Amino acid sequence: MAQLYNNRAIQVTAHRGSSMNAPENTMSAINLAIQEQADYVEIDIQQTKDGKLVVLHDSNLQRVAGIVQNIWELDYEELGQLDVGSWFDAKFAQERVPCLEEVIEAVQGKIKLNIELKFNGHEQELALQVVKLVGEQNFVEQCVISSADYNALLQVKVLNPQLTTGLIMPTAMAQVDQLKVDFYSVQSLVATTDFIHQAHALGREVHVWTINELTEMETFLNRQVDNIITDTPKTLLLKGRRQEAGGRRQEGRGFDLFLQNYPSTGSVPPAMKERNTTSEP
């Protein structure tokens, strides 16, 4: 659920699920994000050799499955035999690469999805297939579509104007006011106070990634971003849901309480950071 900070609603997105505490882009990470009450789960969508929409960040499976093979070289049935959890912890050995349909069915009414379209040059009408599935599952109002491929986002809007789209921006871009998107998903260095004010003046949201350090969280809360994308949503949300001595929630003060009661030099333990080795969305 969105938290209030200085009377502004701030949404929290679990980056590849709660990926600091479970293997990224797996059902365990997604379910944990639901338990932690994040607003969104960000997932990466690619296609298998037979065109199945699956949740996977890297095109190559070496990092999460230990095999040097590309996603487009495997059928969905073959992919389903691979263990993509043990690299993180042996207790996740049963984790498999989920398909998008499976994820949507699991999260309906529980959490929203930020569905990132990832292109590797081997996709089969990726944008079309995602838009089609989202429509068939009556999930349009429960998701946003993001991508670093602007043309794909334009295609999404043509296919279904009701879908919310966001451009992923690892670096600053000129003439962002000309971009026909609903929000900007930006790397932290791009999310300056001026950029955020400009975006808000255009009626667009700013989602910033990937924010795991407590001091950075405070910085972007103060800059009035709309959505913080993090590997560890619990860190950002837990103290925001502190209870008063009498058991009543202190509504509207969550982030203030959290940041006041957490050491300003605090950070995610280095050993945990190593779990997630890639910094891009």
How would you portray this structure in words?
This protein is an alpha/beta fold. It has a single domain (3-273), classed as Alpha-Beta Barrel (TIM Barrel), CATH 3.20.20. 29% of the residues lie in helices and 19% in strands. The chain is built from 11 helices and 10 strands. It has helices at residues 27-35, 62-65, 76-79, 100-107, 126-136, 150-159, 193-201, 214-222, 233-237, 254-261, 270-273; strands at 3-5, 8-15, 40-47, 53-55, 112-117, 143-147, 164-169, 183-187, 205-209, 227-230. An 8-stranded parallel β-barrel has the order 2-3-5-6-7-8-9-10, surrounded by 6 helices. A hairpin with a 2-residue loop joins strand 1 and strand 2. The longest helix has 11 residues, at 126-136. The protein starts with a strand and ends in an 8-residue tail after the last helix. The relative contact order is 0.15. The model is unreliable at 241-274 (pLDDT under 50).
Short description:
The chain has 281 residues and is of the alpha/beta class. Helix content is 29%, strand content 19%.
